[in-house]
Amino acid sequence: MVVIDNKYGLQKIILVSENINSDIMGIEGKALYNKVKHSLTTKYNIPQKDEYLEERDFKYQDEFYKCLKSEICGQWLSFWKAKDGSSALIELKGLSGGKGYLMLTYQSNKWEQIIKLVSKENKKSDHDAL
């Protein structure tokens, strides 16, 4: 998904990987996550926030992505914020046992401002419709 504002240009990008399948231990997903994280860290410095699943023994081997889906065990994500206020986030997401995907989000420094403006315009439009 790409969001472009007429006045300010590119404002948000959300990229989603193909589904990761038959990865019961999360090895393939973690490798993809680490590859993307390394690239972003090399280019933009260390992330300001890192969160990972609690280290614990799972009762069943396929619980890695199930745990990510429920968010009860923590998350696999890293967050960067640039000096200009723009940000990037990568997150490994769970679908079910052995299945997940990687999501990368970029957001410009004007994103929140634009959302507030659009919301205000929508409320005015709703009011005017009455």
Overview of the molecule:
With 130 residues, this protein is of the alpha+beta class. 35% of the residues lie in helices and 31% in strands. It has 3 helices and 6 strands. It has helices spanning 27-44, 63-70, 111-129; strands spanning 2-5, 9-16, 49-51, 76-81, 87-96, 99-107. It has a 6-stranded antiparallel beta sheet. The longest helix is centred in the last third of the chain and has 19 residues, at 111-129. It is globular.
What global shape is seen? globular
- What's the number of extended β-strand segments? 6
Beta-sheet strand percentage?
25-35%
Assembly category? single chain
Please write out the topology.
Layout: E1 2-5, E2 9-16, H1 27-44, E3 49-51, H2 63-70, E4 76-81, E5 87-96, E6 99-107, H3 111-129
Antiparallel strand pairs: 1-2, 2-6, 3-4, 4-5, 5-6
Offer a quick outline of the entry.
The protein has 130 residues and is α+β, with helices and mostly antiparallel strands.
Question: Could you list some keywords that capture this structure?
Answer:
130 residues; alpha+beta; six-stranded antiparallel sheet; 6 strands
